[in-house]
Task: structure prediction
Amino acid sequence: MFKLLTTIVKDTRIIWRDKVGISLMFLMPILLVIVVTNIQSSTFQLVSKNKLPIMICNRDTGQASKHLITAIDKIGMFKVNVVDGDLNKNGISDVMHEKDAMLGVIIPADFSLKVTVKSKRTAGKTLTSFGLEGDTLMAVGDVDPLIVYYNPVLQESLLLSVEGAVRSALQLVESRATLRSLYFSVNEKPMPENLENEMLNNETEITEIAVTKDGNSITPNATQHNIPAWTIFAMFFVIVSLGGSVVREKVSGSFTRLKTLPTTYITALLSKQITYLGVTVLQAVMIFSIGIWLFPFMNLPALNLPSDKFTLIIITIICGWCAVSYAICVGVFAKTQEQVNGFGAISIVILAAVGGLMVPSFAMQGFIKNITNLSPMHWCIQAYYTLFLEGGTLIDCMSNIIPILIITILLQLATYWGLKRSRLI
Result:
């Protein structure tokens, strides 16, 4: 025990002297958490709270186009600005750049006319199907498509949301015109406004409820997703310091000198695991603390810790042990410091991307989705998500904890085999 404690003190001093390693293990994850959470939170607010500027060029003078503009404005997703109707493609593009608008819409000149004719034709067919006499109108062509211009910086997912919103507004205008035509055909008088509003706005409410293990309603936010993810990333980035330490000891001959002393390298490895496991736990405490106390001062959602604190501690220790085991394994097989730094950093980024830290695993397809289970980070993040987002318990997390332990044991066995092959133990 004295030998182990002495070795732990030695490894702790080595870490304290490694200023670059400390920066990578602590400062970099803090910056990543703050920057990425800020960006994602701003993106969520862009959809839910802020409004996308949209320029509408209305070439039509009828009522349908005015109703369309009103419907787009009522969606709540857009900040509507109506511009000169004589603008061409280049003109509205210039206005979008000048106003820093993300979207532009051109309403064709005969929009109201064609919507009216289409609604009367639809109403006539409906009355005929009921055995009543309906108006027979000559076709004047379908309604010309709305031309929507968009800034290329808009992501595809957001662009699809915009398209759906504009389609719903257009459908509302056409439904309003069809209802008016039907009512006038039957009653020979205009449709009362209150009846029209009641029929068009009689929507069934939608209540969103998060499915959780404990039955409590949890509202996920950017913080709940990012804090666990980048905590895991920080844990695995100890490879730069820990892996480099293992290589330095091999190159300097420390392993060989240990054979002449009344101790074994197993003691040294155990010391490194305990020391750096403490580092990973400290990383988690620090990043979680930032999410709890610092984020609210930065106008970011605060981190809500799960009620099962014991399971949180268990998962953090197991994830940290897996990260430490991976770092030591890479350090044992690497020949130089450069190999550890290069392969270690790149492999961590790849494992994070494949494991679902950067892109959700449910969004992956094909081959990439099949190899997700090979990344230890995948099981780590799923364990944290089960705890943070689903309100799970230790039993619920076992399906993720067991694969982490299996991967950790395999890494430990690979490390032992590498040391035996190199005749270091």
In short: The first helix runs from residue 2 to 17.
